[in-house]
Structure formats: structure tokens, C-alpha cells
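Input/output pair, single chain:
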Amino acid sequence: MDKIERLKLFCLVAEKQSFAQAAKLLNLPRSNVTYAVQALEKEYEVLLFYRTTRQVTLTHDGQGFYDEAKLVLGQLKELNRFKAHVRHQEGKISLGLPNRMATQIVLPHLSEFQQRYPQVKVLLNSDDGYSNLLEQQLDGVVRLGAVQADYLIAKPIATIPIATYAAPSYLARYGQPQLSQLDGHWAVEYLVDKAHSDLSTLAFANQTHKLPYRVLVQDTESYLNAGLAGLGLIQIPVFDAQAYLASGQLQTVLTDLPPLTVALTILITDRKYRPQYMQDFIAWLEDLLRQYCVSAA
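Output:
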């Protein structure tokens, strides 16, 4: 008999003021109930009951012990309710990911997952900065680029090309950019978690080029819209450019330079008892991201 069962027996004896009644209610030998109470008294070095042939009453210390035992058993009941929630696939998932990946890929398809798990809440921390999985108590983080996976499980999804684009209005004003003639061209500067610079950097597979800028933004939505407005050259993942290429709002430029490629990775904590809904969400997210990002590449 474990300690929790002994505490339950002790509380029942205290409430019924009888070892015999407690044993009868639980269909146990009276000796089992007596032993359970004696084991608690021995472990905690306290007399819990005054015993007479007619009556069983709590001692002063026994009353305090009873109050604490009821509190512990009540908390245990709450924990068991949590266990039931997990068993019935109720819970929350918190995910950190880039803003446009949230708005353009995950949110439009999230109802697919919710049809399978209608009782699971999904919290999206869509931030263009560096989401810290452990500090922010997230269940997972989607990253573009290099990752540090200390104490985490890194699940590679795909390798994403980052190409260079310009709006037709920009090309009409400044002409088609050529590697040998980048003077007179402008970039849109994107400042997130890095030091301010007087020049913007265009990165390719094996080289970088510095261009001046006249617009500096701090989130991916503004960066894309600055490019669409013809304010400069931009570099975004190929999957994010597809709709704008199809509509003619963007054109690929500097195609003679091999594009930079970055890794797309999901980071999760190494938790032994991960609920089934969490495992299924990670699998669903992997398939979704791979479908959109690899097909576009």
C-alpha cells in the first residue's frame, strides 16, 4: 500500500471516527486499516488518534495532519484531472514561427488540424525575432537559418532558396540590375536582431554585395510591402514569392547568381511524455511546411 492510499485510509478513519467503519466501507480487513495508520504515525513520528474501546478521535497534531492530508489529496485530484484532459486530447500547443509563415501557411490550414483535435488550443507566437523556446515556454519553434540545438531536438524540414526580387515599378525607374552595374540601385534594409549598418547586404550562395538603402524596416510584412512598392530590391524565400510572381507584382532579378539557401528546421524539447495531439501536430506541421516550401523551390 503506497503513501497516498494510507493517507486516504487515515482521512476516512478520521471522518468516520472508526477503524471498523472505514474497513467495512472499503471492504478491507480492519488490520489493514490499523496498519496503514500506524505506518503514518511511525513515519511522521506523531500520534494521530486517541483510541478507546468506544471512540476514535483525532489528537491535536492529528487534526493538523488531517488538514494537510486533505489538501494533498485535493491537489492530487486536480493532477488526475489534468491526466484525464491529456487522455481525452485536451490541451494547448504553443509554437514560435516567422510572421509570414504563420499568416501565409499555418493559419490558412490550421482548421485541418482542428478538425482532428477540436479541444486543443493552438497559440502562435509569430515573431520575426529570435523566439527562445525554453525561456518563452514554447512547445516548438520553426526556424529559417542556422540553429543551436543544445538540449533540443532539431527536425530538418527542407532547404529553402532565398532569391532576389524587384517590383515592375522599381525596374521601370532604375532598370534591370546587373552584377557589373549595381551602382545606382537600392535595396530595402531589414533590421532584426542585428547591428545597424549604413549599407544593406544582398547575400547569394557564394558572395555578398553591399547596396545603399533609403528604407529600413523591422518586420517581414513591411519588408515585402516595401519591395512591392518599388522602394528597393528585396530577398525573400522562394515559397513566399510565388503568388507575387504569378500576379506580376514581383520579378526575379540577378538570376545569374546562385541564390543563398537556408535550412528550415523545427526545434522541440526532448519530452518523454509528449501527448499524442502534440506528436500529431508536429507531424502535421512538418508535412505542411515541406509541401509548401519544397514544391515552391
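Residues 91-297 form a domain with the D-Maltodextrin-Binding Protein; domain 2 fold (CATH 3.40.190.290). The mean pLDDT is 86.
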